[in-house]
Target: Diaminopimelate decarboxylase
Amino acid sequence: MSQSVTTQTEQGLYVNPEALTAHLPALDYRDGALYMEQVSIDEVVKHYGTPCYVYSKQAILDVYQSYTASFASLTHQICYAVKANSNLAVLGILAQAGAGFDIVSRGELMRVLAAGGEVSRVVFSGVGKTYSDIEYALTQGIGCFNVESISELTLINDVAKSLDKPAPISLRVNPNVDAKTHPYISTGLKDNKFGISHENAVAVYEQAAQLSHINIVGIDCHIGSQLTEVAPFVAALDKVIELIHSLRDKGIALRHIDLGGGLGVRYIDETPVSIDEFAQALLPKLSELGLTVFFEPGRSIVANAGVLLTKVDVLKPTEHKNFAIVDAAMNDLIRPALYQAEMAVIPSVLPSKDIDTDGTQSWDIVGAICETGDFLAKDRLLSLATGDILAITGAGAYGFTMSSNYNSRGRASEVMVADDRHQLIRKRETLEALYADEMLWQDK
Ligand code: LLP
Model:
């Protein structure tokens, strides 16, 4: 399963498209043409143009169901992390499957409700909840606030008092565990802004227990994203279990433990622990606790259910480098620029020639934005012609949700595929919409 799909040469990295798609359940090549489920990618492009995000309904559901199957022996709740992909269609599919949600803003909660999500299965994470965020969430009947500081705790108590409605809370504990991932997406270290330190947690719980409108229901931790090993999860769990025992000794009983999200995915050659292996490592410790277990997976549910489709507009070979300028850019997909993320780029139609033939050269796949940081992939061996359609795989998570309008570019369209059907789930943003809310300065 973990076989390499790449060949590194002096010129660049070759990602074998067929070997790659063998690891991506939603995608395969048929007679050299790329398909998602039963829909040809070229047909999607014909209907919706590029750049365009395309997601497989089945791939989303399959991962969700492997979480529920792997933890079937425990009472559990999968709270999909909305920030990974917040399109209403994605949320609606997961809501129908019974998922709960992990949100970090009022906007995300509104999306969940609009998509038919059940508010009592929503947990509210994040370090900067405001009075009005808390008021809205509590009025709607939020399942739990994951509290990150003492000042947030007192603010929640104040809001709850004014609404005369006790607020269900858990404390997000920072276990000081190294998640061994990119520093920007590591959250469980002392130096990170997240959570309440392991050392102070019991004291803060005791403080919470004194507050009139706080209802302690759980404990929570999230140590980072794109974790490929199970050891940091186990280390964090051990620390949280220690706290649960100390709290029990002090008469503070909890209903749930929330282990956050963070399970990594295979983008190209990574070998992340599988959901089942993850479950096997945690289950023995979790079963002893007798608590409901929450998880907040985002990336692992949607990343490999999605691709970003883009067209090659200009080929620009230079003395030092060859640039393929495509119609997607860092505003559509910022992960390569922001985290040095390596994502695979594969053609919608396989070239008839192979890697060591004349047609294949090393290309930087870049956008048209006026920044050197505007790249989607570097030094990739591909055989390209203008007009070709490329698919960037693994783009279902933190792709569209992190996109922007930089350089006054409209955001891409989004399409869902299920079996042999395709459907637009978000229109391409019009350029007029980009300035529709702006006003000219009036001199008088
Ligand atoms: N729960 C909390 C409290 C989180 O902060 C996150 C992600 C998750 C759950 C979901 O984690 P996941 O299962 O998706 O790893 N933009 C970055 C990833 C940022 C993750 C932020 N927090 C990227 O593109 O790699």
About this structure: The pocket of LLP is lined by residues 81, 84, 102, 125, 185, 222, 225-226, 260-263, 296-300, 335, 339, 398, 402 (CB under 6 Å). The chain has 13 helices and 23 strands. Residues 231-249 form the longest helix (19 residues). The domain at 6-56+304-434 is CATH 2.40.37.10 (Lyase, Ornithine Decarboxylase; Chain A, domain 1).
